[in-house]
Amino acid sequence: MSAKKMKSLSFYGPKDLKVEERDIPVIADNELLVRITYAGVCGTDNRIYQGTKKIPAPRIIGHEFVGEVVGVGRNVKEFALGSRVTVYPMIPCGSCYACRGGRKNICVNRTTIGYEMDGGFSQYVKIPAIAIESGNVILIPSGLDDKIAAASEPIAAAYHGIGRSQLKAGDTVIIVGAGPIGLFHTQLARLKKPAQIIVIEPQAEKRELAIRCGATHTIDPQTADTMEQVLNLTNNEGADVVIIDVGIPKVIETSLDYVKKGGTFLIFAGCPHGSKITIDPNVIHYKEINFTGSSASTPEIHREVLELLASGELDVGELISEIVPLEDWQKAFEMKNNYLGIKVLIDPWR
Q1: What is the pTM of this model?
Q2: 340 and 239 in one domain?
Q3: Considering just the CA atoms, what is the radius of gyration of the chain in Å?
């Protein structure tokens, strides 16, 4: 490969991803060039591949990444060659009603690196001026391992979800699903000092990980009467907070009964496009359930999570299951599609 070329994983359409040689991007005066160290594989990347999330093509995908600044536009003053950075990938417009209302994580006109702009499943990525101007480029705290920093974007999204759930000390929280987000939610929930963290997960190894991440109880929904166990653990009341970390409509339907009167039911996981659920509206009405969702995060929350990781208050090293070369992307996507492993990273230089 020539000095001006790089390896990238490009999306051309559903079930059509190719590792190919591309030109290393040339940056303008207000841009950065980042040499990717690690990039995380997200469930959304798999949904793009499967065709259940639509993005423009062709596109280099990958929105969770960390790397080293190797090119600095002459007008960029905030970053220097050699800086270790991650990038919060969703860039708000700053002017829509959501942004004006202080909720830029759900910006109506947002653009995202790895969706509308080329992303991190590559050896290099160009960071556009708007990302720098919006504060989306974030320095990695000294001493924080690149592998851990590469997982920080989904942790930031999970942290935003904990905030949306209104979880507080002394509560009981149920987390449905112990994939990477469910386990991140488990660790983050622990910081709120709830009385109980109950994780519902069919895979034994993930239930064991949930206990190590701070769960007080786990339930195997394949062998137990889940509702009966929830009631036994909550004095027949139900949970103050239920967080759905599985993008399966049927699971959402069956989990609503776990919430106590006045509790919060938070849908975090994305479902395939066009999914439908059927629920009894009287359950929400008479129990006064706060039925809500959580989407994405902000650069400010992302920075806060990096500090929590650097301080050791969060420890997700055990949740990084595997690191694969770019050429083994299919293995990483199959693991995600089959709910195997926890967090898989791509090293584009292997």
Answers
A1: 0.94
A2: no
A3: 20
